[in-house]
């Protein structure tokens, strides 16, 4: 099993931790990462673009002029798509862009993303990540000691002081272990895991 060092927030080694090979040493398959990231991004699309067709545009109930004798082409409504101010032909309507992938694929992609960060040496395990108060300056000082700028920090449960202190720091995101996902792992240069979060991740993905 892969062995990683466990650090304190002062970047002092406090122990070692064995990682489950099934979770942190999976074979890298780029196509699975691609499929899951596409799925995540598609679900984030608003899909609210909308236009009005001829039946929705206001007005146009009366025939603009008689059928014959004017020398002009026949017209039944001033809201025809051929007229200025008329409806739109085949315009976008509200829709859901989301699509699904099998649960097994999601799990495997998550294992691959974790394994990629571990293999690159950009996985950092902390015994805990506690702040005495909500203070962004203190949070940034800890990141500087750890030698990290842009990172995804995964915690095991609610951590009010940490979550509030980190929310305005550019390039940093704090996630509870339940929300861990492929896109956020790949979108941040470093991955910082609290020891308890590692245990929960392995329990969830090793099966």
Topology:
Layout lengths: L2 E5 L5 E6 L2 H4 L5 H15 L58 H17 L3 E4 L9 H11 L4 E5 L4 H7 L5 E5 L5 H6 L2 E5 H11 L2
Helix pairs in contact: 4-5
CATH topology of the largest domain: Ribosomal Protein L4, Chain: A
- The count of helical stretches stands at 7
Could you give a short account of the major beta sheet?
Answer: 6 strands, mixed
Q: Helix- and strand-based class?
A: alpha/beta
Helix content: 25-40%
Strand residues, percent = 5-15%
CATH architecture of the largest domain: 3-Layer(aba) Sandwich
Overall pLDDT confidence: 91
Give the CA-CA distance, first to last residue: 16 Å
The shape, in one word, is: elongated
Alpha carbon gyration radius: 27 Å
Kindly report the spatial arrangement of strands forming the biggest sheet: 2-1-3-6-4-5
CATH class of the largest domain: Alpha Beta
Counting DSSP E segments of at least 2 residues, the number of strands comes to 6
What is the N-to-C order of secondary-structure elements (H for helix, E for strand)?
EEHHHEHEHEHEH
Kindly report the name of the CATH homologous superfamily of the largest domain: Ribosomal protein L4/L1
């Amino acid at each position: 099993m892969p062995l990683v060092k466990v650090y304190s927030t002062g970047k002092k080694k406090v122990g070692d931790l064995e990682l489950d090979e099934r979770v942190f040493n999976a074979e890298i398959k780029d196509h699975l990462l691609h499929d899951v990231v596409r799925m995540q991004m598609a679900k984030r699309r608003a899909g609210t673009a909308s236009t009005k067709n001829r039946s929705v545009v206001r007005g146009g109930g009366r025939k603009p002029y008689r059928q014959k004798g004017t020398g002009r082409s026949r017209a039944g409504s001033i809201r025809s798509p051929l007229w200025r101010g008329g409806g739109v032909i085949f315009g976008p309507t509200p829709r859901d862009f989301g699509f699904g992938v099998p649960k097994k694929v999601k799990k495997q992609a998550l294992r691959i993303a974790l394994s990629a960060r571990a293999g690159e040496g950009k996985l950092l395990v902390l015994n805990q990540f506690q702040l005495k108060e909500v203070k962004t300056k203190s949070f940034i000082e800890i990141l500087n000691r750890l030698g990290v700028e842009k990172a995804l920090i995964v915690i095991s449960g609610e951590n009010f002081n940490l979550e509030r202190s980190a929310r305005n720091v550019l390039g940093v995101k704090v996630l509870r272990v339940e929300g861990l996902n492929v896109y956020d792992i790949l979108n941040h240069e470093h991955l910082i895991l609290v020891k308890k979060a590692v245990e929960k991740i392995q329990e969830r993905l090793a099966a």
